[in-house]
Amino acid sequence: MTHYAIDPVSRIIPYQGANNFRDMGGYETEDGRRVKYGLFFRSAELHGLTENDLLHLHTLGIRTVLDYRHEQEAALKPDPAIAGAVYECIPAFAADLPIAAAQSHTMEELLGGAQTGGFGPEMLAGFYAKLPFGNASYRRLMDLIQEPERLGLLHHCAAGKDRTGVGSALILLALGVPEETVMLDYLLTNEGLASFKAEILARIAPALDERALQGFQAIMAAKPEYLNAALEAIKERYGSYEAYFEQEYGLTAERLDALRSYCLETI
Predict the structure, then answer these.
(1) Which of 34, 181, 205, 263 has the CA that lies 20 to 30 A from 215?
(2) Extents of the domains making up the chain
(3) How far is CA 9 from CA 5, 104, 184, 210, in A?
């Protein structure tokens, strides 16, 4: 089996056939504990995983795969079977976000939008601001993280940046990880997608004018203002993360304590 040297800072597992695959463990919480490794993983699409990738992946103890892509997107690039893991596909779009808008977030459509100037930072920030509310996929995510027998949990979308980025932020915030650290985890996506972004850019750059190039850079980057749009929307609507978790997901203070007792360790 191929050896995969995991970067201790970025937590990236350098699979040949999947970008931005990383363990979400190791982050310190506000009360001085630390998220355990091996419980939560995030990634871009898994369709290209090689045989060696899968051999290593099977050693991680994945029990649940939560796919945020919509059904058509997942059907075009289906996940490989992972032994011992239950697969669930629940599209990540807010209740008040039109399905057509949610389905415009396949990788191919985003790249096409960049070429025509159809997508930009404002559109993405608006998308982020809607994701945390009335979202069936995140409701399922919050249920799953309370079931120890369903962890390790691997959640992913197409690039592992937007839908997975917000889902990852919710996991870490529920565990008591400070907002600044949550942002750092989000921004690591720029490293996780660097080689993929360079490959795509080399292929399409000759066809891009300046406006389209700026659009490409906007949609392929993890920018603080994108995740901040989601975090600020939560605080504006609910006043605090605690109120948000309780009212959106039924995660009371007692349930948060129980979740943290299992998922955190003392340093």
Answers:
(1) 181
(2) 22-262
(3) 12, 33, 11, 34
pTM for the complete prediction? 0.90
SS3 76: helix
Closest CA to 92 of 133, 135, 123, 61: 135
Signed CA dihedral, 214, 47, 13, 152: sign only: positive
CA–CA distance, 6 with 143 (Å, rounded to integer): 29
- CA neighbours within 13 Å on the CB side: how many for 237? 16
DSSP string for residues in 154-176: EEE-SSSSSHHHHHHHHHHHHTT
CATH superfamily of 22-262: Protein tyrosine phosphatase superfamily (3.90.190.10)
